[in-house]
């Protein structure tokens, strides 16, 4: 049974809240890439953030997030597509860093300073791309800053990944709070005060797998209703056919070089899946498509 999900709520104060529960998909990413704890936290937060940003379920909105920081993790690249699916990778998945003074994983140092680029796309609309500065490297603050500076949306984002002693993911998730037209400054201040009292989101999600206690505390003092919820998954779009098309797109001289090897092995950056073609299979592929080599 899939427990990862996104739940959308709206309140009588014209405030929208989305909650993401993402432990399973973060654990799958950890297994695929053999992530270190700090890499799990960085990638898990970014994937959760992408799913929250791609929250337009009816229009199947997609979001691509690219952190280009100067920290030891290198680039973080995440794609959320069809609203309910996500994939991602970091350049250096095995990075180890000392914990911060408060005992937390030092995601900010791992990411470093640089730029955050976000691309939004839907099946019926042109893509929209924009970028902002990485303000902390802690992911949530950076996404909130992006929404405010690039999309003029005042938002509160909280993202949390709890890594167990054996490096597995104990819990993961986040929430996104946004003001709708008609929201008053007083209501926003009250919600912000509620959020300040919540504490670490992972503390809630360890026991609140459906997000009910979390939403009741975020919107304490307001009437609210659930709009809809849907499961979310770790899923890659790679396939044998896609890899073969990549081989067919190579220059003729590169194809000749590949045919000199006993086999060709390709690895998907997003999920770590290995694809192998033996020399005879590669030659047959080129011959079948009438490609000159």
TrEMBL record:
Disulfide topology: 236-238, 268-271
GO molecular function: protein folding chaperone; unfolded protein binding
PANTHER family according to UniProt: 33 KDA CHAPERONIN (PTHR30111)
GO biological process per UniProt: protein refolding
SUPFAM superfamilies on file: Hsp33 domain, HSP33 redox switch-like
UniProt-recorded name of the protein: 33 kDa chaperonin
Alphabetical list of InterPro entries matching this protein: Heat_shock_Hsp33, Heat_shock_Hsp33_C, Heat_shock_Hsp33_N
Function: Redox regulated molecular chaperone. Protects both thermally unfolding and oxidatively damaged proteins from irreversible aggregation. Plays an important role in the bacterial defense system toward oxidative stress.
Similarity comment: Belongs to the HSP33 family.
Cell location: Cytoplasm
PTM text: Under oxidizing conditions two disulfide bonds are formed involving the reactive cysteines. Under reducing conditions zinc is bound to the reactive cysteines and the protein is inactive.
Keyword DNA-binding recorded: no
Xref: Pfam families: HSP33 (PF01430)
Main location: cytoplasm
Recorded superkingdom: Bacteria
Entry keyword Zinc: yes
GO CC list: cytoplasm
Gene3D superfamilies: Hsp33 domain (3.55.30.10), HSP33 redox switch-like (3.90.1280.10)
Record's keyword terms, sorted: Chaperone, Cytoplasm, Disulfide bond, Redox-active center, Zinc
NCBIfam families attached to this UniProt entry: PRK00114.1 (NF001033)
């Amino acid at each position: 049974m899939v427990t990862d999900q996104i739940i959308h709520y709206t309140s009588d104060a014209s405030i929208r809240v989305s909650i993401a529960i993402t432990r399973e998909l973060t654990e799958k990413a950890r297994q695929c890439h053999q992530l270190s704890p700090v890499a799990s936290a960085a990638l898990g937060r970014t994937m959760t953030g992408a799913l929250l940003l791609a929250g337009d379920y009816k229009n199947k909105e997609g979001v691509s997030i690219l952190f280009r920081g100067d920290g030891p993790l290198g680039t973080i690249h995440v794609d959320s597509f069809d609203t309910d699916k996500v994939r991602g990778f970091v350049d250096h998945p095995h990075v180890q860093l000392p914990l911060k003074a408060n005992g937390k994983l030092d995601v900010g140092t791992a990411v470093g300073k640089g730029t955050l680029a976000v691309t939004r796309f839907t099946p019926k609309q042109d893509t929209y791309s924009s970028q902002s500065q990485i303000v902390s490297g802690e992911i949530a603050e950076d996404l909130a800053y992006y929404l405010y500076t690039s999309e003029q949306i005042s938002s509160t984002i909280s993202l949390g990944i709890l890594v167990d002693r054996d490096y597995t993911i104990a819990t993961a998730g986040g929430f996104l709070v946004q003001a709708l037209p008609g929201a008053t400054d007083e209501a926003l201040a009250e919600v912000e005060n509620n959020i300040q009292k919540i504490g670490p989101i992972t503390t809630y999600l360890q026991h609140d797998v459906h997000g009910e206690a979390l939403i009741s505390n975020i919107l304490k003092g307001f009437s609210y209703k659930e709009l809809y919820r849907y499961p979310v998954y770790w899923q890659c779009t790679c396939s044998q056919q896609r890899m073969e098309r990549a081989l067919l797109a190579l220059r003729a001289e590169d194809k000749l070089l590949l045919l000199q090897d006993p086999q060709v092995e390709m690895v998907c950056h997003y999920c770590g899946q290995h694809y192998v073609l033996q020399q005879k299979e590669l030659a047959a592929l080129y011959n079948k498509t009438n490609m000159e080599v």
